[in-house]
Design goal:
The structure holds 2 protein chains of 2 kinds. Chain A is α/β, with parallel strands linked by helices. Helix content of chain A is 40%, strand content 11%. Chain A has a 7-stranded mixed β-sheet, sandwiched between helices. Chain B has a domain at 3-138 and 188-206: 2-enoyl-CoA Hydratase, Chain A, domain 1 (Alpha-Beta Complex), CATH 3.90.226. In chain B, the strands form 2 sheets. A 7-stranded mixed β-sheet of chain B has the order 1-2-3-4-5-7-9, sandwiched between helices. In chain B, strands 6-8 form a two-stranded parallel sheet. In chain B, helix 2 runs parallel beside helix 4. The chains are: A alpha/beta, B alpha/beta. Chains A and B meet through helix 2, helix 3, helix 4, helix 5 and helix 7 of A and helix 2, helix 3, helix 4, helix 5 and helix 6 of B.
């Protein structure tokens, strides 16, 4: 075991998988040697990648077989195109078929613009795949802490997972900061105000409101340990789960619906000094969050 | 067609559907039985307040074991783009709506999306595309990304994009393109009774998510079905 900390944020998709699974346990499906590239990017004279920006396969975590998928945020911002999406859809259908848990390392800006229609339907197919697998008793654990964050359709897929593990860098949202600003103006959303973006969409805020379940340091080993723990939780998605989620999300609007900034919400949660949150180190934050935060638990 | 005209044509035997601003809730009667109706209309964006109201209705229907289908009328903008919606976690609200529709389907309620106007991006995914079967009326105009935005990002002039769009349905907005990639199962004939068309659809059993196969048959998505099937075959061993 190496003592050197490896940043999840800086790591690529394959490095993240290597850190997550037991040594030499990973086998990729439709790997880069197959050169299963996007058939659409050439229309725009754009470069392709042999794995279309996602690695899928099987491995073991702590000896337990799992399916693993990792998006590559450095290729087209991890955006979901036809082939990329189909690889994840196939993996989720297999998970349901053989009752095996799935770990998804998200790193995506959402639907790939150049193949928008194919990507949009792929997101819908993936969400259906996640939900049908979960209803059959499979756990689908999402990990978010990469460069591209988890935006657009990626945010919707994440919202279907059983457990979400995030680091501070793990931004989750539907519309990206630049798109809100372009459409609604800088008064509504200043995409260049980084601290505003991070406290509105970042991992700390999502953890505090119950949008994410486990907060970890930006460290591949921390992600792995949290994944192991998440895979030990009882799997469940049924009418009771969604009734509980309905109540949880209604309560959030009642409780925080008038807040205009994340710090207002943190204050309402009972945190004395909300402005200290952004600079708080991960372990200190996780302890504080445990005391004050909203939880999803069996309501996701 | 307006929602009122659509409902009259769908349910000549009668319907009780009420509007709450841009949302619809109620039921209609077919000869074959009751159909639950929900709707997101008026080309309005879907934010957390709309999504939570729609999911509440879907979950309420799901708790009734009547196995009656759910018809979802859709004419929306995109997801609501605002600081408040994102601050409160819009992704969770949209995902929850989609999950509710998928649960309803698993509990035996056929879910039929009827796209009669616009819909875009996250709102499209959480409403129309989360239904088991999606049909459209002529004139519906789904769009994932509008061409001016695409032009900005791809740095290609709109006429160039329009020219490229003639060769592939994969990126440009519009009903025909969404049909060709497999997203829409049927485009109904607005000149015929919608009631008959819905009845015929409900009489045909649905077999799983066949959108990729459909898209492949129309050469709109040539790889998705094969790639997903291969992974299922290899991984499922």
């Amino acid at each position: 075991m190496s003592n050197t900390r490896q940043s999840w944020y800086e790591a690529g998709a394959r490095e993240r998988i290597a850190a997550l699974v037991d040594p030499a346990s990973f086998a990729e499906f439709i790997g880069p040697e197959r050169r299963e590239i996007s058939p659409h990017l050439s229309i725009f004279d754009l470069p392709t990648q042999f794995d279309d920006g996602i690695v899928v396969g099987c491995g073991a975590i702590g000896g337990t077989p799992v399916f693993v998928a990792a998006q590559e945020g450095r290729f087209m911002g991890g955006a979901v195109g036809e082939v990329h999406g189909a690889k994840l859809t196939g993996l989720l259908r297999a998970a349901k078929a053989v009752a095996r848990d799935v770990v998804i390392a998200f790193d995506t800006g959402g639907v790939r613009l150049q193949e928008a229609n194919a990507g949009e339907i792929a997101i819908a197919e993936i969400m259906r795949g996640v939900v049908e697998a979960r209803m059959a008793g499979v756990r689908v654990v999402g990990l978010i802490g990469g460069r591209a964050g988890c935006y657009g359709g990626g945010g919707l897929i994440a919202g279907c997972c059983s457990t979400l593990i995030v680091s501070e860098q793990g931004r989750i949202s539907v519309t990206g900061p630049e798109v809100i600003e372009t459409n609604k103006g800088v008064e509504e959303f200043d995409s260049r105000d980084r601290s505003f973006v991070w406290r509105t969409m970042g991992g700390k805020h999502r953890t505090l409101i119950g949008g994410a379940d486990v907060f970890v340091e930006d460290d591949t080993m921390a992600f792995r340990d949290a994944t192991r723990a998440a895979l030990a939780r009882a799997p469940k998605l049924d009418g009771n789960t969604l009734a509980a989620e309905q109540a949880r999300l209604e309560r959030r609007i009642t409780r925080f619906g008038e807040a205009s900034d994340a710090t207002d919400i943190w204050q309402l949660l009972g945190i004395d000094d909300p402005w200290a949150i952004p600079d708080m180190p991960a372990t200190g934050f996780a302890t504080l969050a445990d005391t004050y935060r909203e939880r999803a638990d069996d309501a996701r | 067609m307006t929602p009122a005209e659509i409902l009259d044509s769908l349910f000549p035997a009668g319907h009780a559907v009420t509007a709450e601003i841009d949302l619809l809730f109620g039921r209609g009667m077919l000869e074959s039985g009751t159909v639950h109706v929900i709707g997101a209309t008026g080309r309005a964006p879907i934010g957390i307040d709309q999504a939570i109201r729609l999911s509440a209705a879907v979950l309420e229907i799901t708790s009734i074991d009547d196995a009656a289908p759910i018809l979802f009328l859709v004419d929306t903008a995109s997801q609501r783009m605002s600081r408040r919606d994102e601050l409160l976690g819009l992704s969770e609200y949209l995902a929850h709506l989609a999950k509710s529709l998928l649960l309803a389907e698993a509990r035996g309620h056929r879910t039929i999306g009827l796209l009669y106007g616009g819909s875009a991006a996250g709102a499209f995914i959480a409403t129309a595309l989360a239904c088991g079967t999606l049909v459209a009326l002529p004139g519906a105009h789904p769009e994932v990304m509008d061409l001016p935005s695409m032009a900005r990002v791809t740095k290609l002039p709109i006429p160039v994009l329009e020219e490229k769009a003639k060769a592939t349905p994969v990126f440009a907005p519009g009903l025909d393109n969404l049909v060709r990639v497999g997203g829409i199962a049927e485009v109904w004939d607005a000149g015929r009774s919608l009631s008959e068309q819905l009845t015929a659809l409900l009489a045909t059993p649905r077999a799983g998510d066949d959108r990729a196969t459909f898209g492949s048959a129309q050469h709109g998505r040539t790889k998705a079905a094969a790639v997903a099937s291969e992974i299922l075959a290899v991984a499922g061993r």
